[in-house]
Design brief:
The chain is an all-alpha fold and 65 residues long. The protein has 2 helices and no strands. It is rod-shaped and about 60 Å long.
Length: 65
């Protein structure tokens, strides 16, 4: 797991907590912020996945030569 993947997961958890607390307290702004954090986390995690695949593929190509 690379840095982007772990930060993405952390953002998703943080967003989930904010969203839940926003629902609990009837704070629509906090709830929306939580949803945005979750989306940002998902994108960052997927970026990390792609980055890892590319670096892994590059390393495999270098090892073959």
């Amino acid at each position: 797991m690379n840095k982007d993947q772990s930060k993405g997961v952390l953002d998703q958890v943080k967003g989930d907590l904010k969203e839940g607390y926003g629902k609990l307290t009837d704070n629509e702004s906090l709830e929306a912020e939580g949803k945005a954090d979750k989306a940002k986390g998902t994108v960052r995690e997927k970026y990390g996945d792609v980055k890892e695949k590319v670096s892994g593929g590059f390393n495999d190509a270098v090892d073959k030569h």
